[in-house]
Design brief:
- The protein has about 325 residues and is of the alpha/beta class.
- The protein folds into 3 domains: about 90 residues, Diphthamide synthesis DPH1/DPH2 domain 1 (Rossmann fold); about 110 residues, Rossmann fold (3-Layer(aba) Sandwich), CATH 3.40.50.11850; about 110 residues, Diphthamide synthesis DPH1/DPH2 domain 3 (Rossmann fold).
- Helix content is about 35%, strand content about 20%.
- The strands form 4 sheets. The chain has a 5-stranded mixed β-sheet, sandwiched between helices. Strands 3-2-4-5 form a 4-stranded parallel β-sheet, sandwiched between helices. It has a 4-stranded parallel β-sheet with strand order 13-12-14-15.
- Helix 5 links the parallel strand 7 and strand 8.
- The longest helix is centred in the C-terminal third of the chain and has 20 residues.
């Protein structure tokens, strides 16, 4: 695998903007490329500072860090624009340069029963999407890209926190094909009822994600029951601008109505160590990325729920309603 950091285009944009100091954010998988990126930007006489905080998505743009460090610009590598922020920023999406033909051929046996495919991709594969479409069309498939909806930056683009673009085409397709990794296919299978086939381009695997769905839904149901039994409940409020899902004030009122003691907690990143320090708290509701609660179920010693799941536990919504709109 080779990565294209689109350095020439970035340097041209930096020449136009003329920053003196920039803060660079790198997605987790490309932090090892910091030297290459630093050398390129510093060649223009610009001071470079790298954020060492985790950057799982463009929902965690380091605006607070940038202001504290008095930089002129943020350069965010590895994600597409997710939201508007009150700070100058350049998004460099980064391309994965891969030969996808072998895994596309491999996928045909898994897809033989499906005529119309809904296609979605993680951002590093955007440049390959027309070739992917042509491959499937040559092999007798009709391809429909998921809609540009919600936080998706482009038609076909998939992000981890909501799947409205897939739901918009669900009735038109027989199955969904996700080009990327487990993170996106897991979210997709929880949001749609059609089969979801992952093309894991990094491990050269083709997987039907359906087997995960039942397991995850059981885990979520267990967490909901534990919140119903809890006496003290922590409400975790994320401080990052793009990770705000639901109202903590609303939950405080609902928890009190249900005879529970709410504790409001702020965190810049939710970790096991931080959770364990609140050892007298029976359960947590996190208002950051909903995938934290869902993906890391086995990781945490206490149950952690999303805002939507909390509404079920507090008898505001039914489980059936949540499943209909998607638990992510």
């Amino acid at each position: 695998m080779a990565l294209d950091f689109e350095i020439p285009g970035l340097l041209e944009e930096l020449k136009k903007r003329k920053p003196k100091r920039v803060l660079v954010q790198l997605a987790e998988g490309i932090k090892q490329n910091s030297e290459e990126i630093s050398d390129a930007i510093e060649s223009l006489g610009i001071e470079v500072i790298f954020s060492g905080e985790t950057s799982w998505g463009a929902c965690s743009v380091a605006v607070h860090e940038a202001k504290e460090l008095n930089v002129d610009l943020i350069v965010h590598f590895g994600h597409a624009e997710f939201m508007e922020v009150d700070f100058p920023i350049i998004y460099v999406e980064v391309k994965d340069i891969l030969n996808l033909e072998p895994i596309l051929k491999k996928s045909l046996s898994e897809l033989k029963e499906f005529k119309v495919l809904g296609l979605s991709y993680s951002i590093q594969h955007r440049h390959d999407i027309e070739n992917i479409k042509k491959f499937y069309e040559k092999n007798g498939k009709e391809v429909i890209l998921s809609k540009k909806s919600g936080h998706a930056a482009y038609e076909g683009h998939i992000v981890g926190c909501e799947y409205s673009g897939l739901k918009a085409i669900e009735k038109k397709v027989d199955a969904f094909v996700i080009i990327g990794n487990n993170f996106h296919s897991m979210g997709a299978v929880l949001s749609v009822d059609k089969p979801v086939i992952l093309l894991d381009v990094y491990n050269n695997e083709v997987k039907n994600a359906g087997k995960l769905k039942e397991k995850i839904l059981k885990q979520r149901a267990i967490s909901i029951e534990k919140l119903r039994e809890a006496k003290t409940v922590g409400i975790i409020v994320e401080v990052k601008p793009g990770q705000k899902f639901g109202s903590h004030k609303y939950l405080v009122d609902k928890l009190i109505e249900n005879g529970k003691k709410p504790i409001v907690i702020t965190m810049s990143e939710i970790t096991v160590d931080k959770i364990m320090n609140f050892y007298n708290t029976d359960a947590f509701i996190e208002l950051a990325c909903p995938r934290i609660a869902i993906d890391d179920f086995a990781k945490y010693p206490k149950p952690i729920l999303t805002f939507k799941e909390a509404l079920v536990a507090l008898n505001v919504k039914s489980w059936k309603e949540i499943l209909k709109i998607g638990i992510v």
